[in-house]
Amino acid sequence: MPEYKKPLPILDSDSVLFWEACKRHELLIQQCEECGSYRYPPRPICPNCFSLKARWNTSSGRGEVYTFTVARVPLTPEWAPDVPYVVGVIQLDEGIRIVSNVVGCKPEDITIGMPVDVTFDDVTDTITLPRFKPARENSQ
To answer: For residue 17, how many other CB atoms are within 10 A of its CB?
Structure first.
């Protein structure tokens, strides 16, 4: 595997289960055991009811593009080979929003409300990043 030079997530006690699941190509989301709300990013306290109790649920991995931007100028030299690339806010069917890349289509084909499915990018031996691609029923 070639060396990955872009920033990587820092695994901590709140997020390690999320990242371990991504490595297995599974998207997990925390859900409060008290009020039932989903939360992302993973954290120890529910932002709705302040409970410390949470469980992990497997997400469908389906959602839609809530909003997006096309990066045409690299932020740092490491990103230069990827321009143009899409940074999107994905609203999952479970109701939470995740910031990620939209891949598998041209930037000009992306629209707000476009259905997407999670896909996984094994960028290092230990880190796999969730990204989103056009949903199968939306692909040509």
So the answer is: 14
pLDDT in tens, 38-63: 999 999 999 999 999 999 999 999 99
The structure's pTM equals 0.91
The mean per-residue pLDDT over the stretch 108-126 comes to 97
What is the share, in percent, of the chain residues with pLDDT greater than 70?
97
- Name the helix (H) or strand (E) containing 19: helix 16-23
- Whole-angstrom distance, CA of residue 33 vs CA of residue 111: 35
The pLDDT-based confidence of 1 (bands split at 50, 70, 90) is confident
Of residues 91, 69, 73, 90, the one with CA closest to residue 82? 73
- How many angstroms separate the CA atoms of 27 and 57, rounded? 8
Across 7-108, the runs of DSSP E, i.e. the strands, are 28-32, 38-39, 54-58, 62-71, 85-92, 97-102
What class does CATH assign to 16-138?
mainly beta
Domain boundaries, the chain: 16-138
Report whether 51 contacts 78 (CB < 8 A): no
